[in-house]
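Weekly modeling sync, notes
Attendees: S.R. (lead), two postdocs, one rotation student

Agenda item 3: backlog of single-chain predictions. S.R. asked that every request posted to the team notebook include the full sequence so nobody has to chase files. The rotation student volunteered to paste the first one in as an example of the format we agreed on. Action items at the bottom.

Example entry:
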Amino acid sequence: MGDLTGQTVLVTGASSGLGEQLAYAAAARGANLVLAARRQAQLSSVADQCRLLSKAQAVAIRCDLGRVSEIDGLFAQIDALFGRLDLVINAAGFGYLAPAVEIDVATMAKMLRVNSLGVMVVSQLAAQRMLTAKHGEIVNIASIAGKIATPKSAVYAATKAALIAYDNALRLELKPAGINVMTVNPGPIETAFFKTADPTGHYLDSVRWLALNPVKFAEVIMSKVGHHHRELNRPRLMAAANLGYQVAPKLGDWLAGTVFNFK
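Predicted structure, as returned to the notebook:
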């Protein structure tokens, strides 16, 4: 999408990583931005930079997507400040890589609340407003892990697979109103994501050769907005591997457990 002047864009997970870069990309297109994340100081700094880029508004609102009550409050502020919502980009989420038989229940629950339920609630509240306005687009950042699960990613992959399935149904429900839902499925991205997901740094070192650059990838995502794209899968090598997985699942299991298992 080229010009977002006058449009209101919500970006969750905007305090760092891909979400931060998506906020900058939207700001460069002139959008009024609502930035949501848990870390207020970092979020406010991103908002300051967005205002310089957009010459428009950028509001930083602390919100934990793992707490539904905070999401309700976020949308109440959007209604009060702007009275409209044209584009939502859900980039909030986190991962933790561990064997399925070892990961603790609290971590599993938190990942499900943030990566799946929280994004669904944001999407639901956004869709309600977009249906009234008969206009809008929702972009949810899932993961290629939701299509190709590998060892030590069982729970994270499950949260993203749930989001992909949710988007597929939501897309069909909103299509008659002209509202698009685009699912973005990235592979590894060179961000601070892995400080939580894999504190050893081993995984990112192993996949750095195919890891996506967050600045460039944010631009790719924004270039697809407004064109009714259904899905975006990157890097292309992993997107191709997913297609092969559907055709030959036994071979896919072998590849996921060996060739593509860098953990």
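Discussion: group reviewed the output briefly. Residues 241 and 252 are 8 Å apart (CA to CA).
Action items: rotation student to repeat for the remaining queue; S.R. to check formatting next week.
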